[in-house]
Amino acid sequence: MLAAIPLLILPFAIYNLAMLGLFGGTAGLDAGVMSLSMLSGATWAMSFGDLLIVVALLLLFVEILKATRTGTRALMDHLLSMVLFIAFLVEFLLVAPAATQIFFILMTISFIDVIAGFSVSMRSAGRDVSIGL
Q1: pLDDT tens sequence across 34-83
Q2: 61 belongs to a structural domain
Q3: pLDDT in tens, 85-124
Q4: Any idea which UniProt keywords this protein has (predicted)?
Q5: DSSP secondary structure of 29-86
Q6: Any domain includes 131
Q7: What are phi and psi of 17, to 5 degrees?
Q8: Euclidean distance between the first and the last CA atom of the chain, given in angstroms as a whole number
Q9: Cβ atoms of 84 and 56 closer than 8 Å
């Protein structure tokens, strides 16, 4: 059952912890994590919020790989991903500190997880058809 839990709940939980003030509020998401001097002379900087989005994209990749499974575990995973997206959407619409670009991108990643998961599972289900003679 633990494998059915959507991995994208991690960025959701981290953002909510930031809203509660654990990382200095949502302003803490703008804190710099790293910066690199580029050959062009420019400085490329990554904030904690940017890192959270990158982690969410990596977890999305794993979620899409998980969507290729079949069976009741995959169905439960899709349903929980849908519940997580609904939680993202409700929080985005009703909680003022969640109305940020970072949260919106995380919500969009969650939506892509739902759509990709259902479309991959539907394609897989179509290939499982066998004709018995």
Answers
A1: 999 999 999 999 998 899 999 999 999 998 888 777 667 777 888 899 99
A2: yes
A3: 999 999 999 999 899 999 999 999 999 999 988 787 666 6
A4: Membrane, Transmembrane, Transmembrane helix
A5: GGSEEEEEE-TTS-EEEEEHHHHHHHHHHHHHHHHHHHTT--SHHHHHHHHHHHHHHH
A6: no
A7: -65, -35
A8: 36
A9: no
Q: Vertex 46, ends 43 and 49: CA angle to 5°?
A: 155
The domain containing residue 78 runs over which residues? 2-121
Mean pLDDT, the chain, as a whole number? 85
Q: What is the dihedral sign for C-alpha 93, 95, 99, 103?
A: negative
pLDDT per position as a tens digit, 12-23: 999 999 888 776
In this structure, is residue 100 part of a structural domain?
yes
Helix (H, G, I), strand (E, B) or coil at 14: helix
Tell me which DSSP letter residue 21 carries. T
| Count of other CB atoms within 10 angstroms of residue 82 | 17
For residue 128, is it within any domain?
no
Structure tokens at 89: 């959407």
**Number of residues in the chain:** 133
Computed over its alpha carbons, how large is the radius of gyration of the chain? 18
Strands 32-37 and 43-47: antiparallel
